[in-house]
Design a protein that fits this description.
504 residues, alpha/beta, Rossmann fold, five-stranded parallel sheet, three-stranded antiparallel sheet, 20 helices, 18 strands
């Protein structure tokens, strides 16, 4: 809620910085008299956010960092809402970065805000509203003590649950203060809840429709009417709060899950979505997964703490993981109302690398490169993050295995161009078979490639010319599986091991 004088720099957020960090020391102003002399002036918190958002937009900086795929959809709407000074509700399924977005808004607050020292509700030194601050100001005037609140202390969120009470959000009479000798009629006996304590800040409610209706009424009353009623106390508190919330679109309806006046409170309703394509999904994995960070780094960065493994995930294998999530979001066999979170992609990526690591340990190798034979491990990491439609219950593993095969086929068709498919099929005539699986070390695949030179060109196209044994092994398995899925080869599978043979 601050607006520093132009020559002051104690309240400017740094674009892209962690809003929880203290970038500058707090100002040494300790009384309201000195604060007035400094040229500081008070503005509503929505105006404070608007000012800092305008500065970021003008500088070409994003309002929210670490969120991908929203540049042309969600973020422009968010910019409009903040420039308009609106309260915001984000509607979307799980895993659509809703909470990350609202937490990032802290970075749009000034770094330091002057408050009345020892005030429970961050009273404005120039316009105190609590009984404590008003009485103290009347007593000491310009000597009113001033403290400085960091922007990280001006944000609070509440996960809405059915057991959330008015005392949690608004406040309650403190029996200890009554025992100390105060009368119940004394306003100073009130212990304020989360909302008043976030005065001059941002209050976020996750899963807003899960709040009981009577709690929603109480929340609306304090935010809209500025009227707090606690155990018979009727306290006028002109709170200054920006309200942000999240909700599932299925719950945010007029069917009684949220009261209409509270719904009307939000000036902006923004729909979030999942990553629009596999490439964006993989960029998110690179940001969120520690394993992906290792795989994308230099050779020195790819050393694991356990056994100095070098992790390399070929692009085509990473794309299979991302496409699995993309296909799952379109599958009629999965419950789309519960959503397919990006966390599924991250978990599957990490599981794929973990299974490849386990295979490397057993085979005595120091290089970890996932193969198609590692994909079966993704069934277990996927099952807990998707919901199968009731008509398909009992077929979870079959459905997920089919989705994995469809993902491989999609990437294969995008990445592999066979100059002479007939010669590839002809190479498997007669008794020619190829064994693959987690029991074979990477060097064994080089021998296979020597015996089937017709596969060398497409394999090296997949590896980008790399002769690394682990990458070659991964590319060969991927090529063989793609040939099977395009009905050019037969496959006999037993667990994580398989035999590819001609169709004759």
């Amino acid at each position: 809620m601050t607006h520093p004088a132009p020559h002051d720099d104690f309240s400017r957020p740094t674009p892209g910085s962690d809003p929880m960090l203290r970038l500058t020391p707090q100002p040494d102003i300790t009384t309201v008299g000195r604060l007035r002399e400094s040229g500081w002036r008070s503005v509503p918190v929505a105006e404070e956010i608007r000012r800092n958002a305008s500065a970021r937009i003008a500088a070409g900086e994003p309002l929210v960092t670490g969120v991908l795929g929203f540049e042309d959809t969600v973020l422009p709407q968010l910019e409009n809402a903040l420039l308009a000074g609106h309260d915001v509700i984000l509607l979307g399924e799980r895993g659509q970065a809703k909470t990350r977005i609202i937490r990032s808004l802290v970075g749009l607050l000034d770094e330091w805000l002057p408050v009345v020292a020892h005030s429970e509700i961050n009273d404005d030194p120039f316009h105190p509203v609590s009984r404590f601050a008003r009485d103290l100001f009347a007593e000491v005037g310009d000597d009113l003590p001033v403290a400085w609140a960091h922007r990280s202390d001006r944000y609070g969120e509440k996960l809405a649950t059915p057991d959330t009470s008015i005392a949690d959000l608004i406040g309650e009479v403190d029996p200890i203060r009554v025992a100390e000798g105060r009368y119940l009629s004394d306003e100073l006996t009130i212990h304020y809840g989360l909302v008043p304590r976030l005065n001059r800040g941002i209050f976020a409610v996750n899963e807003l429709p899960d709040l009981a209706e009577r709690i929603q009424v109480g929340l609306l009353n304090v935010l809209e009417e500025r009227d707090v009623q606690i155990r018979g106390h009727r306290v006028r508190l002109p709170l200054d709060i920006v309200l942000v919330a999240t909700a599932n679109p299925e719950d945010y309806t007029n069917r009684g899950r949220i009261i209409t006046p509270l719904k009307d409170r939000f000036g902006a309703q923004i729909r979030t979505h999942y990553p629009p394509d596999a490439a964006t999904e993989l960029r998110i994995v690179e940001l969120e997964s520690t394993l992906a960070g290792r795989a994308a780094g230099t050779n020195d960065d790819k050393e694991t703490a356990a056994s100095s493994f070098r992790i390399e995930v070929p692009d085509f294998m990473a794309e299979v993981v991302a496409e699995l999530s993309q296909l799952a979001r379109e599958s009629p066999h999965l419950n789309q109302r519960s959503g397919v979170s990006v966390r599924l992609t991250i978990a599957n990526y990490e599981t794929l690398v973990a299974n490849a690591t386990r295979r490397a340990l057993r085979n005595g190798e120091t290089e970890v490169v996932p193969r198609v034979s590692d994909l079966s491990a993704l069934v277990s990491s996927t099952q807990g993050k998707v919901e199968v439609e009731s008509l398909e219950e009992g077929r979870e593993e079959v459905l997920l295995t089919q989705l994995l095969a469809a993902s491989v086929l999609l990437v294969f068709r995008r990445r592999v161009r066979l100059a002479d498919p007939q010669s590839v099929v002809a190479a498997f005539s007669g008794e020619t078979v190829v064994h693959v699986g987690d029991d074979l070390p990477a060097v064994s695949y080089g021998t296979m490639l020597t015996q089937l030179p017709v596969l060398s060109a497409p394999v090296h196209d997949l590896t980008g010319g790399s002769e690394d044994p682990g990458v070659v092994a991964s590319a060969l398995e991927f090529l063989l599986e793609g040939l099977h899925l395009t009905k050019r080869l037969n496959k006999d599978a037993a667990g994580t091991r398989a035999i590819y043979r001609g169709r004759g």
